[in-house]
Amino acid sequence: MFILLVVRPGLENEVYEKLKDRPEVKEIYRLYGDYDIIIRLSVEGIKALDEFHDKVLRKLRGIEISETLIASSY
Q: What pTM value is reported for the model?
């Protein structure tokens, strides 16, 4: 699954630094366009996703919008 983030200007590096070493975050990249950061996340189920969202993302200063994409293989 992937999470797209819109971050308040000037706080992108702070958000990146707080997320990059989390065990759930497998990859994290800067984006150009409507979103600022994309995270590839690995969690065990929706409950773990809810916990990551509520206990990690919502507590980070600077995140204005998040959009979660649950991907499926063909």
A: 0.91
